[in-house]
Task: inverse folding
């Protein structure tokens, strides 16, 4: 469904990704794992058209390289960034409605679906996000991405700074989205245990390029994960 080939990404003259290639099938969940600074967020930003890059990105066989972020959303790609990017002095409901811009005919249906996944957001829909916990803000970020009615969901570092109990909640929601809605999910993570429990396949990023790939079972038995984090 999504294929990335020989992708390189740049911030000014600085190169953040080098010849990255990967693919994800429809309905599949894959994880991009690596230490801080490996290029995981840049990879998702590149797919969304937020970073200057070279190489090829296709969706359903259609070249989407260099398209604007708004075009990506209209094509069915939702993004929950690690930085949250919420409006801190707006309510939970209003933050969710921001994501409904391209799916205005289905606002109430999508809102109800988000509330089923995250009942806490229904209970606190009038609360400003600046007063919420990190876990609740992550739920708002995911919910806002789902309000776009996506076919593909990009999730950047969903567990960073969160308590283990909240990490379990986030994992269960992502599993439900794949199982019940057939959503295609690409998630980046530093937490390898979380990634191994969630994804069918993983790619290891180190220094801006892929150093290993395989199923969760294959990589859990491979020392490449440890090398990527701690060195040879």
Result:
């Amino acid at each position: 469904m999504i294929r990335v080939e020989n992708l390189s990404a740049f911030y000014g003259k600085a190169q953040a990704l080098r010849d990255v290639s990967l693919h994800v099938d429809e309905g599949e969940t894959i994880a991009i794992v690596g230490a801080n600074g490996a290029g995981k967020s840049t990879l998702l930003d590149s797919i969304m058209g937020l970073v200057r890059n070279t190489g090829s990105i296709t969706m359903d066989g259609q070249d989407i390289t260099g398209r604007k972020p708004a075009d990506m959303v209209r094509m069915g790609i939702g993004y929950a960034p690690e930085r949250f990017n919420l409006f801190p002095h707006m309510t939970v409901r209003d933050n969710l409605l921001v994501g409904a811009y391209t799916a205005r005919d289905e606002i109430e249906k999508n809102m109800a679906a988000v509330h089923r996944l995250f009942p806490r957001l229904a209970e606190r829909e009038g609360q400003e996000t600046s007063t919420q916990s990190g876990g609740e803000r992550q739920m708002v970020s995911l919910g806002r991405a789902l309000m776009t009615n996506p076919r593909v969901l990009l999730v950047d570092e969903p567990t960073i700074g969160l308590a283990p109990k909240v990490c379990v909640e986030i994992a269960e929601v992502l599993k439900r989205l794949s199982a019940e809605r057939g959503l295609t999910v690409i998630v980046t993570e530093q937490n390898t245990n979380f990634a191994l429990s969630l994804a069918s396949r993983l790619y290891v990023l180190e220094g801006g390029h892929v150093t290993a790939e395989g199923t969760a079972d294959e990589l859990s038995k491979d020392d490449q994960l440890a090398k990527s984090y701690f060195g040879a």
